[in-house]
Amino acid sequence: METIKNIAAILGVILSLASVITLCSKPIKAYIANSLAKYKKEQEENNHNETIKETLTRLEAKIDEIKLLNDATVKYTIESCRDDVREIFFKYLPEKTLPYYVLKHVEYIEDIYVKTFHKNHYTKGFIDEMKTWTVDYTGVRPEDIN
After folding, report:
1. CA–CA separation, 15 and 29 (whole Å)
2. What is the value of pTM for the model shown?
């Protein structure tokens, strides 16, 4: 009988410990779950920040590439404006008479060359000289004259 009492006592202790563990495990489980949730949130934020940094790096590289292409385009446009004005100047220099549409084209080039690119080169001198020449209105529609 004594053995049965001992076994019953041991079972009682085991069941009591199981009850205590069950009662204590809920707060522990909640604490662990909260810790894991915070850790998961931190990991997600870190991953998001890494993604943003990678995107920013790619954008900076693209911006640098765009700047290079823009610089090349600007240089080409400036040279093209100079060439157009020089060709027009020497083509019409002997008569010193510009067709109306050519004059309008020269004024458009001046707008780009001087006002947009802020260039004041010998090309501006050519433009100023051509503005003093006579204008040929032959073949111009009356509504095109401002």
Report:
1. 20
2. 0.58
